[in-house]
Amino acid sequence: MSMSSLLPSVETPRSWVVATVALALMATAFGAPWITVVALKTIAAEVNGQRAIPAFAGALVWIGSGVGGILMGQIAERVGIRWTVVGGAIMIAVGLALSTLGPSVPLFVGHGLFIGLLGIGGINAPFYVYVSRWFDRRRGSALALISSGSFLAGAIWPSIFERIIAHAGWRQAMLYYAVVELILIVPAALIVLEPPPQTPHRAVAAATTRGTDTVLGWPPNLVFVLQAAAIFTCCVPMAMPQAHLVAFCSDLGISPAHGAAMISVLLGMAFVSRQFWGALSDRVGGLYTMLAGSACQTVGLSLFLLTQNELGLFTVAATFGLGFSGLVPANILASRELFPVGEAYWRIPTLLLCSGSGMAAGGWVGGVLYDYFGHYAPAFAAGVAVSMINFMIIATLAFRRSRTLAVA
Is residue 355 a contact partner of residue 201, using CB atoms and an 8 Å limit? Predict the structure, then answer.
């Protein structure tokens, strides 16, 4: 019996209240970038049809949120997550308002600096660290739940934004949503986000890992670099359908409303299946969950190369959502399993920076390849290749994990 199993559990009904509120706040925060995704062709029409420009704005959100997560994670450790979340909501609203001034510079600054770095950066990464401290038995399930906020945003908001954009334009949609961000996030953060419980588990975890010279038989930072490479290469192919599916459907003669609905199906399936992946990771661990998810993502993305009819694409979108959804929270869980809890405040945001950079690269490269070739097949093929690399990296870590357990 492990020492931690002899200690009282930190988990209470309050833990799940906090996780549920975190999910709702992340679903609201991550709604902001979806306006640009849904309006990608409309915005591109203002810059001679160059889809790489609005795609790059979306990429800047991911990069900014990753860099901001490292900075805001440290600030949250000092002043509490309540204030980084409130500040993040205000900055997202400012970024949306600035972006309405049009492509390209105001759109880039609004998305990269305000929505990404100062906005989502103050909400996303700090929530992973914060919520993980409310759980010790079902941490994988809790991380899977809150990380589903971006999927829930994609399932709910695109169809709503498509209607608003069709009637009022993308600029008005951004202004309306800026108000929604403030109304929903600020009061909830002030009321619910109290400090996490302090328990003996954190001291025990630090004591049992302090002084360890190797992780999986390798230098700890080598393992962490491979983890970072794994989360980057899983997110490059993950981003391509999400960033370009509405535009891809439009190219095929499928209406933007149906393209937005397809995004909702993809991310709705991802939200549901992520709960399965979270439960699985509680049983088998983060690395083995990553391995299964990587294989499923590779297969799902490959299917986009094989069909172009509407019914087929709805089916492929659902399949893809089922496959990729467990990768990011499983990687975060693996970090908590492999490294001391005292390092979580910088390791988790660093992984999320790599994740955001991968999402940024995938969305932007998809736009660049489309502008060069005039169709999306090369982008999806490139995504499949990167997903195969991801599988090989994770397989290496999982193999080391199995060898380490066998020796122990």
Answer: no
Domain annotation covers residue 399: yes
At 284, which amino acid appears?
V
With respect to residue 277, please indicate whether it lies within any of the assigned structural domains.
yes
**d(C-alpha 235, C-alpha 330), whole Å:** 13
In a domain, 104, yes or no: yes
Domain count, the chain: 1
pLDDT tens per residue across span 95-138: 999 999 988 899 999 999 999 999 999 999 899 889 988 988 88
In contact, 237 and 383? CB cutoff 8 Å: yes
pTM of the full predicted structure?
0.77
Q: What angle do CA 285, 331, 37 make, to 5 degrees?
A: 135
User: What are the backbone dihedrals phi and psi of residue 213, each rounded to the nearest 5 degrees, phi first?
Assistant: -90, -20
Of 188, 189, 37, 62, which is closest to residue 120 (Cα–Cα)? 62
Instruction: Measure the CA dihedral 239/350/387/269, to 10°.
Output: -50
- Confidence bin at 25 (pLDDT 50/70/90): very high
- pLDDT digits over 234-264, tens only? 999 999 988 889 889 989 999 888 988 898 8
* Residue 89 structure tokens: 């909501």
The span from the CA of 38 to the CA of 175, in Å, is 15
